Amino acid sequence: MKSLKQMDRGALSDALDHAGQRTTPQREMVFSVLLDERNHPTADEVYTRTKSRMPTISMATVYNCLEALVTCGLVKQVNIEREPTRYCPNLSPHAHFHCRETGRVYDVPVPEGMMKDLVKVLPGNYSADSVELVFRGHLEKGKTK
Amino acid sequence: MKSLKQMDRGALSDALDHAGQRTTPQREMVFSVLLDERNHPTADEVYTRTKSRMPTISMATVYNCLEALVTCGLVKQVNIEREPTRYCPNLSPHAHFHCRETGRVYDVPVPEGMMKDLVKVLPGNYSADSVELVFRGHLEKGKTK
DNA sequence: ATTTGATTTAGAATAATTCTAAACTATGTT
DNA sequence: AACATAGTTTAGAATTATTCTAAATCAAAT
């Protein structure tokens, strides 16, 4: 898909607007790239993909756009073991699985409410606004996905 | 505490030995530093603390020692949001809490078996050997710890 | 004693990310 | 419409944690 669906375009400008930021062609393109292939790309990968559709974009702009998208809440950063930051447009609560063999990261759906329940292990004076759950291991032979 | 307790010294050389590595004064000192003040120091902080007791040690050696300790299983790396890697000698299953205000990281004890139970959310073909659970937020006024 | 291999060390190299300052773009105001 | 203002993009420099390199040191084993 080469461009943003109307729905996503709307969500994007709403979210940017709400954060006091402008909707620009670069931001639309980067967002589109993220929605298009949701395999947790790094900034560098996002740069390569975006550049193929918008050859004049710079690495700095890709970082700027990603930051804007994170700030306005449409994208989440995924950090695994000090590897380069990956970007994920999946906003529903989920965990991550990191395959040691391929290095790939997979979203893992979790039962409704589970992420919230986890917070209950915290002592009373700890107030958490985010919960991250990351598994590491390998995929059994068979499925690739 | 300036030096390793006999118990820890034994655990250290056993573990190093088991991994085919030698017990050296630098490794003992770095391990001692980690056991001494368990506030998830970064390599840089470990370097500073170790240097105060062993002024000739180098940064490279600190990294080497930390890597040796991680490899032989006595220490775990804790990575939060692409910040510098922290080192933690707490081997019992636990979660982490990252305070956005102070940047500090706290160990959070979890109910027996909980970390293992979390693995059950994974699809059958996902085989996890490690589970990481990180909360981010802030500490309510009152206790500092 | 000598060889062998591991370890330590200082400093160079790497790599992801952030910063800087100039050019560009869009928006709102008269 | 012209202009001021503020936000955005851009290339390249700077930063920073970490890894690499190669020489020096050390320790164990022949």
Structure description:
Two copies of one chain form a homodimer. Chain A has two domains: about 5-85, Winged helix-like DNA-binding domain superfamily/Winged helix DNA-binding domain (Arc Repressor Mutant, subunit A, Orthogonal Bundle), CATH 1.10.10.10; about 90-135, Ferric-uptake regulator, C-terminal dimerisarion domain (Dna Ligase, domain 1, 2-Layer Sandwich), CATH 3.30.1490. Helices cover about 35% and strands about 20% of the residues of chain A. The first copy, chain A, has five helices and five strands, in the order ααααββββαβ. Chain A has a three-stranded mixed β-sheet with strand order 4-3-5. In chain A, strands 1-2 form a two-stranded antiparallel sheet. In chain A, α2 crosses α3 and α2 packs across α4 (about 60-70). In chain A, about 25% of the residues are buried. The structure holds a DNA duplex (30 and 30 nucleotides).
Q: Quickly name the level 1 CATH class of the largest domain in chain A.
A: Mainly Alpha
Count of separate DSSP helical elements of chain A: 5
Helix/strand structural class of chain A:
alpha+beta
What is the overall shape of chain A?
globular
Q: Helices and strands of chain A, in N-to-C order?
A: HHHHEEEEHE
**CATH architect. name of the largest domain in chain A:** Orthogonal Bundle
Low-confidence stretches of chain A: none
Q: Classify the fold: give the CATH topology of the largest domain in chain A.
A: Arc Repressor Mutant, subunit A
User: Which strand order does the major sheet of chain A show?
Assistant: 4-3-5
* Helical content class of chain A: 25-40%
Distance between the ends of chain A: 21 Å
- The CATH superfamily title of the largest domain in chain A: Winged helix-like DNA-binding domain superfamily/Winged helix DNA-binding domain
Q: In angstroms, what is the radius of gyration of chain A? A: 17 Å
Biggest sheet details of chain A: 3 strands, mixed
